[in-house]
Amino acid sequence: MTQKHTITPDGLVIVDKPSGFTSHDVVAKMRGIAKTRRVGHAGTLDPMATGVLVLGIERATKLLGHLALTEKEYLGTIRLGQTTLTDDAEGEITSATDASKVTRDAIDAGIAKLTGDIMQVPSKVSAIKIDGVRSYKRAREGEEFEIPARPVTISSFAVYDVRDAVAADGTEVLDLVVSVVCSSGTYIRALARDLGADLGVGGHLTALRRTRVGPYRLDAAKTLDQLQEKLAVMPIAEAAAAAFPRWEVDSKRSRLLLNGVRLEMPDEYAGAGPVAVFDLEGRFLALVEEHKGKAKSLAVFG
Predict the structure, then answer these.
(1) Distances, alpha carbon 246 to alpha carbons 34, 226, 243, 278, in Å
(2) pLDDT band at residue 146, thresholds of 50, 70 and 90?
(3) Theoretical Cys-Cys bridge with 153: which of 128, 140, 183, 223, CB 3.0 to 4.6 Å?
(4) Confidence class of residue 264 from pLDDT cuts 50, 70 and 90?
(5) 169 in the same domain as 291
(6) How far apart are CA 135 and CA 126, in angstroms?
(7) Are residues 46 and 189 in contact, defined by beta-carbon separation less than 8 angstroms?
(8) CATH number at residue 249
């Protein structure tokens, strides 16, 4: 009998996504590099955007849905003075207004309105499903439709620089270099659109780089070329320890947990969301969530 030889380790790969690639393109490329079909991503990144894209390989794909819910951080450039069909530089310009008279005080006031817990309407060319159909498909077909506003949290929205510029069509515009820390599900191009609308001159996103997803930062990311040369996989136990609260259990409780018994959880984990369970030897056993004082399994790895 031939023994199955697994070359690909379980774990996360932190990719520095290049511009022009969809998240699915990166997954497809990683399937070739890692020589496995079991690859997924934790939250999409628009084709125009670059930066941190978290991929899971083999059993680590079971972590991805929980990682996708974590906080994100971005650096971007917002152009005031032009609106586009897609709210970013990929779409055709739909209006242009001289933005040279917009003051820094007005910009700061507009940003303050878009900070904290807000209701945001995603871009019409987003991947959100409306009655089972992707929003961007409806938009491409020229449909008239509305996307309901959704609650998002903007923890930080800061302007680093304001630059005067002249667009290709001769419009005097302002380019804002910004950083944003936000909850999952936030659209940075929608922030650009809404800031421009509030200031009366229109706005869109011209550049975007994601610098962090949860605990995973750009300094840990590798380009696809680097990964092609040497596949760098963060072991699943290390990835879980970085992203979730850690709960260590003894050997008896380890066995019970792996046999499907719902263990009593310490009070400190109440309302903590997903918790990574390790045995005393440091083996990653499961991802659980507190439910009525007991550990409800989300994914088992032990």
Answers:
(1) 28, 31, 9, 7
(2) confident
(3) 183
(4) very high
(5) no
(6) 6
(7) yes
(8) 2.30.130.10
